[in-house]
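The freezer alarm interrupted the setup, so I double-checked each line after restarting. Inputs confirmed:
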Amino acid sequence: MNQVIVHPERCVGCMQCMAACATAHSRTRQLFSAIRETPLPRSRIHLGTGLYAEGFPNRCRHCNPAPCMLACLPGAIHRDMQTETVYVDPDRCINCASCAMACPFGVIRYHEDASAPPKKAVAIKCDNCMERQQQERVPACVEVCKSGALTFEDNSKALKRKTDQVAQSISAGIDVPQGSPSFTLLNTIKRAQIAVRHAAV
Amino acid sequence: MNYVIIGNGIAGVSAAEAIRQLDGSCGIFMISNESVEPYCRPMISLVLEGTVSASKLPIRGSSFYQSLNITPVLGSRVARMDVDAKILFLSDGKTLPFDTLLIASGADPRPVKAPADLANIFFMRNQHQVLKMLEALPRTRHALVLGGGLVGFKAACGLLHRGIDVTMLIRSGYPLSLQVDEIAGGMILSELTRRGLNVRVGTEVTAFKGINTVTGALLSDGSEICCDLVIIGKGVLPAVSFVPRDRIQVDQGIVVDNHLETTCPGIFAAGDVVESMDIARKTRWVNAIWPEAATQGRIAGMNMAGRAVVYKGSLSRNVIRIFDLDILAVGWVNAPDDPRFTVLSEHNQCLNTYRRLVFEGDSLIGATLVNRIETGGILTAMIQNEIPVRASKEKLLEPHLSLKSLMF
Ligand SMILES: Cc1cc2nc3c(=O)[nH]c(=O)nc-3n(C[C@H](O)[C@H](O)[C@H](O)COP(=O)(O)OP(=O)(O)OC[C@H]3O[C@@H](n4cnc5c(N)ncnc54)[C@H](O)[C@@H]3O)c2cc1C
Ligand code: SF4
Ligand code: SF4
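Predicted 3D structure, all chains:
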């Protein structure tokens, strides 16, 4: 089963994924018309960008067991076993934000949405783009990410790749660059800028 | 093997599901005096408010008992138990033997001192009570809410929402004093008064007035107040009347070990009835909240069915949403003035946000957030997992808090 995997070290903070996500969850599915919809479509992937674009694409991990599911008062959150997707049912959700305290990644937002009954604010989070997946398309954020910070692949394969990298770095005794040299350079610059900012404060 | 569960609240339901998952063939009996199907207790306040109909309350389908092959024993109370003979005695005279028992009887509302036997004086703990309130609402002009805890507060909000005139009597200076600190409490109070709530601090009811139905109340400051509906929300007490205290240790609630087993082997407890180790306070505490009841039920169920699972301890946490204000409080928010604890806070009047964090050494042990609460789960996880804060503590105050900002 393919899943969206985040590689934060490759994120350049361009926020394309947010626009793509909001569009994919709009009523019209077109960026041009989506920006004129009410309620305004909002992204389910969140980029905690700072002054120096230290991007971190943050989205629902579809945890198992999912803490949000245990905390939900009316039982509005459930797991689709087949796709390993944790869903919020907008009809059942009472917007109590009990799940806000439960999600250790802080990825749930509360607002009106095209998928919810009109005028009703509900808990909104990543749904793995199920609609697109049914049409055999990859999730919108992955499609649009050009730096490879978001990939759609089998979790175990991605894990193996990471493990290999770590193993290599241990045996070689050196820090293996996790992305291309330019990403490493970019990240080093960002870290330096942040360090300078903190030193200045 | 006969599993018996006292209580069909979320703790009992979660336990039954866990047991059935691990053991397909055992007998499971669930006893409750409430004969409706399992429902979302916190949502009864939304029924009072009128935003949710009672038909939306059930949390599992109507085939819950049947599909899990559970024998429901509904409509009577457990009156007494014999832990040696392993028998429960019900209020209707029936008896029920058990091999392994779960006490998930929840909590009862704390009574008031004044005699409260007139009509239209209500507690708010179950669906039945709220449906009775709805019957009284058309004739209600002035409501009186006793207590500013979670339930009293929700009752007051619900009635205000319906346009009913509400007076709330509280002991401390602001509502929800157990859940939030003074500044957040003040923000709540001003929002509520702005919406028309009358709050009277430091007085309580000494007697109710009325012939058959309540028409007023006498207060301890000598004044008198007119009301045609009273809701008592002065907190809850663990429902332990049937528990033999000489055999099962009960302090504030039923004392359990880290497998949620009571001091009597083979008898477990979960939910509002339990006193467990509080992660932030590092002492035993009753944290009567839904997510804790669900988690405890699940873990107790697994332990009962023979899979040893450790319960990490409980943590108080609440989200309160009133009109335009969101409040999230987690852990020990009111830790005493003591050099052991450091407090960081930030009150942004422009954004109308407030954040207050309590640390013990390097560990976060409490947090109060007013507005911008989305990332509260990150703080909750830090408290729950006792992760020492190595990054600068000020970073945690930022409303844009993200995991990345903690990593850099
Ligand atoms: C109005 C209201 C609002 C709330 N809002 C929130 C909220 O926003 N967030 C939150 O986290 N929590 C909230 N709570 C608390 C939450 O509802 C409880 O923590 C949770 O329901 C506890 O579940 P439980 O299974 O332990 O107990 P309960 O749900 O109380 O279930 C126990 C059951 O056992 C039955 N029982 C008791 N004694 C006996 C006996 N001797 N024999 C047979 N049956 C018995 C009871 O009738 C009951 O049906 C709220 C509670 C109320 C009343
Ligand atoms: S919302 Fe948060 S807790 Fe729930 S599955 Fe997603 S990441 Fe996990
Ligand atoms: S906000 Fe909605 S999804 Fe979240 S816990 Fe409440 S009801 Fe469940």
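Quick read of the result. The domain at 324-407 of chain B is CATH 3.30.390.30 (Enolase-like; domain 1).
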